[in-house]
Amino acid sequence: MSEEESSTSSVILPDLNIRLICPICKNPQPKIIEEYVNGDLVCGECGLVLSDHIIDTRSEWRTFQNDDNEKYASRVGAPVDPFLPEAALETMISSKGKSDLTKTHFKATVDKNTLTLKHALHEIEAMCTLMDLSKEVIDTTKQLYKRTVEEKLIRGKNKTTFYAACIYVACRISKVARSFKEICASTQVSKKLLAHAVKNLVATFELNMGLMTSEDLITRFCNRLGLTPDIERICSKISQRIEDLGLLTGRTQNTIAAATIHFITTTLNIPISIDKIALVSGMAVHSIKSVSRMIYSEKKKLSDLLGD
User: Fold this and answer.
1) Distances from the Cα of 123 to the Cαs of 80, 86, 142, 251, in angstroms?
2) Is this structure's pTM higher than 0.85?
3) Least confidently predicted of 78-82, 102-106, 248-252
4) Do 179 and 217 meet the contact criterion of CB atoms below 8 Å apart?
5) CB within 8 Å of 203: residues ≥ 6 apart
6) Which distant-in-sequence residues (6+ apart) come within 8 Å of 34 by Cβ?
7) Could you tell me the domains of the chain?
């Protein structure tokens, strides 16, 4: 016998056949009731207390909401928010029958600046959710805004403008294609104010965001238009060739992306209207037509890509 087998055989295992039986009823299949309120084990047939001071091993569920709604009961404390100071050290007093004590404790322990920051982060998350942004972008936006508040850049200025600026910068850092025009349309902030706020953020935090290319926008526009991956690849190659040749220098990336898609769909006879492309890209129809004609005039330089 090997050492492993001998050590296994020497281990004393519990006898699972041992059962608790009432000494009065002596029923081989006893009905034992656990009364956790009193901490007793009671025979369900004769009522004899078989054991006392039992330990309640059940989960302790309670709510950490202000309204004590049992629907949101939890075994742990309130969720920790890493963007709030000392978020993991909060102590809450239940409001059941202690409303005055709860209010006094709330006023004494909760900082006004923390409440303001918490409300701002909630608004930022709502904006990002409406724009269908990922959690990575949302967290980056919150971190940028928190640093903006700490550096006192927002003092005396419009908060919504800095919400939009933080969202735009977070998208650029995470390499998520969102243009100025899209951010302005979603947040109702003017392009001039947004550009000024973004410039302040980049200068203050010394950010290196890199340049957004038309290829980044083409991927999202093609997905929203329902175009196939093959068409998307052709559009990306055409856009890259246009950039390499410098054919549309000075045009915005949104316009180049929309015009490239219109040029490809028209050349390959794909039934996508220019109005739909304009709606998806947020660009004017006449701008797309004008740039598309410029691309068509250089069709010979792009013909090798159209044959893929």
Assistant:
1) 18, 21, 10, 33
2) no
3) 78-82
4) yes
5) none
6) 40, 41, 54
7) 15-58 (2.20.25), 62-109 (no CATH), 113-205 (1.10.472.10), 214-306 (1.10.472.10)
